[in-house]
């Protein structure tokens, strides 16, 4: 059986990347990852040897923590942050600004996806879970997971069509 530390080393980067792709900031994703593994540590005596079930448990805990965080943040009203939406314009071409611009565009496109499509896509592409693992994680059939990923890819292609990549 893998120790919690070994699981952390293998799953934490995938989990953090998935949380960022799901809309969390890097700092929030790191905090949620730490909190997830703290909960896993507290449950260590009840864990089984099955790696797939522990992986699913880790992503389920993180997803629930993220939902709680979003729900708590919706209750807070920031009156000083109510600025008009700004449009994203392409910067002058340099490698670091191009990369930042592309990251920003991809994040905006991911944010525009419906939640179920975004979740399936990020679990597959960012967290690198298998179709079967995503199906167990989201309580959906494997066919439905494949359809959601396919639809998400088509939507992203549509949202980013002007990039001609």
In words, what does this structure look like?
The protein is an all-alpha fold. It has 2 domains: 1-82, Rna Polymerase Sigma Factor, Chain: A (Orthogonal Bundle); 91-165, Winged helix-like DNA-binding domain superfamily/Winged helix DNA-binding domain (Arc Repressor Mutant, subunit A). The chain contains 7 helices and no strands. The protein has helices at residues 4-21, 26-42, 51-74, 95-112, 115-125, 131-138, 142-159. Helix 1 (4-21) packs antiparallel against helix 2 (26-42), helix 2 crosses helix 3 (51-74) and helix 5 (115-125) packs across helix 7 (142-159). The longest helix is centred in the middle third of the chain and has 24 residues, at 51-74. It is globular, with a radius of gyration of 18 Å. Residues 78-84 have low confidence and may be disordered.
């Amino acid at each position: 059986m893998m120790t919690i530390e070994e699981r952390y080393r293998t799953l934490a980067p995938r989990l953090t990347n998935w949380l960022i792709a799901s809309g969390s900031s890097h700092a929030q994703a790191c905090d949620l990852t730490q909190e997830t593994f703290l909960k896993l540590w507290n449950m260590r005596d009840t864990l089984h040897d099955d790696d797939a079930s522990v992986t699913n448990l880790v992503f389920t805990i993180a997803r629930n923590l993220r939902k709680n965080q979003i729900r708590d943040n919706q209750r807070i009203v920031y009156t000083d942050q109510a600025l008009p939406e700004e449009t994203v314009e392409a910067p002058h071409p340099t490698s670091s600004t191009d990369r930042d611009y592309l990251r920003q565009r991809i994040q905006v496109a991911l944010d525009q996806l419906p939640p179920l499509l975004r979740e399936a896509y990020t679990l597959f592409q960012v967290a690198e879970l298998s179709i079967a693992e995503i199906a167990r994680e989201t309580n959906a059939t494997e066919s439905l997971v494949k359809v959601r990923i396919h639809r998400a890819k088509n939507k992203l292609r549509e949202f980013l069509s002007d990039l001609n990549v």
